Structures are given as C-alpha cells and as structure tokens.
Amino acid sequence: MSMAPFDKKQTFDEGSPSIQTHLGILQGVIQRMADNSTSCKAWCITIVSAILVIVADKGKPDYAWIAIFPTVLFAALDAYYLALEKGFRNSYNSFVKKLHSGALLPEDLYSVMPEGSHSRLQFQALKSFAVWGFYIPLIALVAIARSLVIG
Fold first, then answer.
1. 1, 20, 40, 93: which one has the fewest Cβ atoms less than 10 Å from its Cβ?
2. By residue range, what is the domain housing residue 66?
3. Does residue 82 lie within any of the structural domains?
C-alpha cells in the first residue's frame, strides 16, 4: 500500500508561542542593529573630539585631518548596521505577510536571516540621511576646527 505524501497545509495561529518567539527574536535583532548604529555615532564623536583636543593641545593643526579616518570608518560601519537592520525588517515584514496570507511554512520559523541584497541595502544606507546627514557635517566640523580654532 502506497501512502500519498502529506499534503495538508499547516496553518499557524498568530498568538502561538512559536510565532511570538520568532517575531520577538527578529524584533530583538532589529533593536540591536539600531543600537549599534547609535553607538557608532557616539563613539565617532568621542574619538574625533579626542583627536581634535590632542591636536589643539600639541599645536599641530595639520594633524587634524587624522580625525577624518575614524569618521569614514564609523560611517561605513554605521551603514553596515543600518543595512542589516533594513534586511531584518524586510525579513520580519515578509514573515508577517506569509503568516497573514497562510503561506507560512514550518521552515520559516527556523530562519532568522536578513532579506534582500546586502550590497544594495548597504548602498541605500550610505545614501540615507541617517548616515550622510551625520558624518558629512562632522567632516565639515573637522575642517572648520582645523582652520579656525586649531590653525
């Protein structure tokens, strides 16, 4: 006797512990990425300020440009975290869409991966005001500090 494969579509209750746990995990990851992005900005300001204070104290205005290096590095790191955050938000939204449409598969409960092309997401993050709106003015402030205050 041959048995037909199990074809019954499994439905998931929105309130089930497995669904809520999966959504909670995704929300936690998204929050950590947002926190990391905020930390990048805070550390960047701290390091750039320390460099400028040391440069001013030593009377070497040409060394102020050293502050550009951590600014660029933190801008890239910030864009990376923002891209990951966007990828995980895409994953969250896709999961909820599958849940509401009845297309959710049991395997979807075990996948916690960012969705979307990472290079495209990172390029979008670099273009976002959250990145350039912070780091470009910081570079301008380094230039102003170098020419007006330090030099």
1. 1
2. 17-150
3. yes
The one-letter amino acid at 90: N
Residue carrying structure tokens 């550009």: 68
Which of 49, 142, 126, 140 lies closest to 86 in space, CA to CA? 126
User: pLDDT tens across 38-81, in order?
Assistant: 999 999 999 999 999 999 888 888 889 999 999 999 999 999 99
Tokens of 53: 């204070």
Q: Minimal CA–CA distance to 108: which of 118, 120, 122, 94?
A: 94
Give the three-class secondary structure for 16.
coil
Residue 11 lies in a domain: no
Domain membership of residue 90 (yes or no) is yes
Q: Which two tokens stand for residue 62?
A: 């040409």
Token reading at 31: 């929050």
The answer to whether the beta carbons of residues 142 and 65 sit under 8 Å apart is yes
Tell whether 49 is covered by a domain: yes
